[in-house]
Structures are given as structure tokens and as C-alpha cells.
């Protein structure tokens, strides 16, 4: 509770779920002072895939992040418009950078595979993580998913802010 000058949410919205997006945005706007700003980083699904994605459960939702849900940029924008007094001051898409990060994670994971096996992680675990990292990297490179960073503000005082 309270009011804050700044609010930051980094890849937490994916755990909120479709049913609670309104609650999330209403709470965020209620926590900001009148001249407050919010930075939101979210993994998103392409707007054109949102409807089919939201009606099923994919590999990641089943095995990696049960209950997780990727909003689309359109859905985020709609929630901001309908449930807050915030406006988007800046938006930066870092999806291709995220693909490169996943590639590095994959390499580091397998550079340390023996250490993981010594700790009791089996071949099934290794294959699952290899698939997960490659699956996500491909999604980011293909642009079916992305990561966006938004700067949101309540007043004209935030116009000069950029996130780059």
C-alpha cells in the first residue's frame, strides 16, 4: 500500500494470468503518485496469435511455467487505456536481444552439464531445458513472441523520459 514515485515490474505480468490483468493494472496505477512513472517489461505474444494462444496450453505453460500467460501488446495497451490513468511514454522492443540471451543461456547450460549431473539432474531434465531454451529462442527470432519495455506516466511531467 501507499503511493510511490516509481514502480518497476520486470517479467512478472506473465504470472498474473489473463483473468487478473485488470486487477494488475488497477493496482499499479493506484500505487503511483500523480507524477509517478512505471516501467513494465513483459514477454508478449504476437497480437495475431493471441486468441489461439489464450484458448490452449502450450509446452511452456504445461512444463516450465504452469499457469503462466503471455499477454499481447494490444492487450497490454487495452488494459492501460481501460483500467488506468496512465499513458505510454516510450516502448522499446528487445525481443531479438532476448533471443541472443537465450542462445547464451543454452551454451552456458551445456558447458556446465556435468556439474548438473553431479547434483542429480537427469537426462530428461537436460533435454527439457534444451528444448525450452531452443523453443524460446526460435520464438523470439521468428517474432511470434517478444519482450517489450514500456515507460508509463500519469502526467505531462514524464514526457521527457526515455528508456533507451
Gist of the model:
The protein has helices at 13-16, 21-31, 50-54, 59-64, 73-83, 95-111, 113-118, 123-142, and strands at 4-10, 32-45, 87-93, 145-153.
Spell out the blueprint of helices and strands:
Layout (H helix, E strand, L loop, with lengths): L3 E7 L2 H4 L4 H11 E14 L4 H5 L4 H6 L8 H11 L3 E7 L1 H17 L1 H6 L4 H20 L2 E9 L11
Parallel strand pairs: 1-2
Antiparallel strand pairs: 2-4, 3-4
Helix pairs in contact: 2-5, 6-8
Can you describe this structure?
It is a single chain. The chain has 164 residues and is an alpha+beta fold. It has a domain at 4-96 and 143-158: Rossmann fold. It is 49% helix and 23% strand. The protein contains 8 helices and 4 strands, in the order βααβαααβαααβ. It has helices at residues 13-16, 21-31, 50-54, 59-64, 73-83, 95-111, 113-118, 123-142, and strands spanning 4-10, 32-45, 87-93, 145-153. Strands 1-2-4-3 form a 4-stranded mixed sheet, with helices on both faces. It is elongated, with a radius of gyration of 18 Å. The two termini are 30 Å apart.
Helix content: 40-55%
Placed side by side, the strands forming the largest sheet appear as 1-2-4-3
Total helices: the number is: 8
Tell me the Rg in angstroms.
Answer: 18 Å
CATH topology of the domain at 4-96 and 143-158: Rossmann fold
Q: Look at the structure and give the CATH class of the domain at 4-96 and 143-158.
A: Alpha Beta
What is the N-to-C order of secondary-structure elements (H for helix, E for strand)?
Answer: EHHEHHHEHHHE
Main beta sheet: strand number and arrangement?
4 strands, mixed
Mean pLDDT: 93
- The separation of the N and C termini measures 30 Å
Identify the CATH homologous superfamily of the domain at 4-96 and 143-158. Vaccinia Virus protein VP39
